Amino acid sequence: MKIKFSVIALLYAVLLLGACGGGGGGGGVTPESLAGTWYGTAEDPNGIMWTVQVTVDNTGTLTSIIRDGVLQEGVRSTGPVVREDGRNVFSFTFTDGTAAGFIVDGSGQHLGFVDEDFWFGVLQKGASSLPSYNGPDIAGSWNGYTAELSSTFDLVKTYDSQATVETTANFSGSDSEGGAFNGSIPNYSSFYGRWTGTWTASDGSESGGVRAFMSVDKTFVATYACSGAFPAGCSYSVWNKQ
After folding, report:
1. Residues of the chain above pLDDT 70, percent
2. What is the CATH number of the domain that holds 100?
3. Which domain range does residue 81 map to?
4. Contact 89, 156 (CB under 8 A)
5. Strand partners, 67
């Protein structure tokens, strides 16, 4: 299955990942149920943050994208999104031919996204403005799942994952593939709700950078962790706060 995630295009979904607790994969999320206005943030390939608003009509077609208050003329999907995975992974194509995708959580209210140029972000249905974020907002237990892509943006696999973040910004977690990890995300943006830091596999086999992007209501995050070149050298997760 080949899914290219373009933003703006996901997870956030880039590849995204729906999550448990808010609820997990599958469920009643359909292309039509995505109808509405979605709002959140996106990081561009240069690490610059933007506000993003996406409108989806009642057929599941993306009809408009607004970035930092500016309508992206002519940028919409050529048709409705299509379910590609039981965990609410959807794909679609933009009018410029760019393939894209996202993953929605089980509540149908949050999603993550990423594209082939490495735009990555998070959106919440019905939101219209950003709150002020604080460092401790990221603290807590998070549960959901992770997706991996090949170098050609094939969806390789998805699997359950979770992490616990302390008020110190240190974190630890594990996934159903048998991997355990830890790290720290001490740097954050109070305006955009982005946390950045580093991670290390508990067995020392891998390490790299990690970023987490929080939804407007602060109950959902979309993250990516890389130890190699994008996209195959990264994993993409979406988690709900427990």
Report:
1. 89
2. 2.40.128
3. 32-125
4. no
5. 52, 70
Same domain, 231 and 213: yes
* 72: Cβ contacts below 8 Å, ≥ 6 apart: 8, 64, 65, 66
Asked whether the beta carbons of 111 and 129 are under 8 A apart, the reply is: no
Q: Which residue has the higher pLDDT, 113 or 141?
A: 141
Residue 120 and residue 48 share a domain:
yes
CA distance 143 to 162: 4
CA atoms within 13 A on the CB side of 24: 11
Mean predicted confidence (pLDDT) in 108-127:
91
Closest CA to 242 of 89, 126, 139, 170: 139
CA neighbours within 13 Å on the CB side: how many for 48? 4
Both 140 and 182 in one domain: the answer is yes
**Would you state the structure tokens that stand for residue 237, as one six-digit string?**
């997760």
Q: Using DSSP, state whether 34 is helix, strand or coil.
A: helix
Rounded to whole angstroms, what are the CA distances from 147 to 18, 62, 79, 113, 135?
A: 10, 23, 24, 12, 26
- What does the pLDDT look like over 83-106, one tens digit per residue? 877 778 888 788 888 777 777 888
Using 50, 70 and 90 to split pLDDT, how confident is the model at 220? very high
Whether 166 and 115 map to the same domain: the answer is: no
Q: Would the pLDDT of 24 be above 70?
A: no
Cβ proximity of 119 and 109 under 8 Å: no
Cα 125 from chain centre: 14
